[in-house]
Amino acid sequence: MRPKTIVLFDIDDTLLVTSDRIEGTHKVTGEKISWSTAEYRDNKHRKDEYHLDYTKFGDQSGIELANPGPGLSFLREIIEYKEALDLRLGILTARGGQGKGFPGLKTFLDKFGVDIEAFDPYLIFFVNDEKWEGVLEGDSADRKKQVISTLEDIYPERSILLIDDDIDNHYDSKQTSSQFP
């Protein structure tokens, strides 16, 4: 018997790829930067050197106009097996502004033939949303880990798999990914 699994998908550079930019100014030199999400991921070890501004990154239209990411085809495939494998699907993203970003995500998914109803509404987490202030702490990776830890406490019988473009965020609680078709 296959384990019951919660599969969480990251948004940026996983389900979709946007042209959104993260702006910043170096704290010492004053150098200005404008990173794509991939550049941010590759430079995250340097992020403390900058005053970062995520304002442009949170624009809903960026999500609506995004291109499919590498995880979108996996999402489509896994939806077919959702019931047979007793899967619960969710979203775990570093984005904030769930109220702003969620409609854009719905529009994006609709455009590519994925019904937002495939996701469990209780498993959608925009970890930098203001509603998590004082609840989740640390950077985005820390916040994602806190959500996963809480889900493990709530659902001890389920394994949790995070599909994320950032290898540092990959998570497979019971090594279940090898069991997917």
Question: How would you explain this protein's 3D organization?
Answer:
The protein is built from 5 helices and 10 strands, in the order E-E-E-E-H-E-H-E-H-E-H-E-H-E-E. The protein starts with a strand and ends in a 9-residue tail after the last strand. With 181 residues, it is an alpha/beta fold. The C terminus is likely disordered. It has a 5-stranded mixed sheet with strand order 8-7-1-9-10, with helices on both faces.
Helix-and-strand structural type = alpha/beta
The global form is globular
Assess the beta-strand content as a share of residues.
15-25%
Q: What portion of residues is helical?
A: 25-40%
Which spans have pLDDT < 50 for at least 5 consecutive residues?
177-181
What Rg is obtained from the alpha carbons, in whole angstroms? Answer: 17 Å
Total strands? 10
Q: Write the element-wise H/E pattern from the N-terminal end onward.
A: EEEEHEHEHEHEHEE
- Major sheet description: 5 strands, mixed
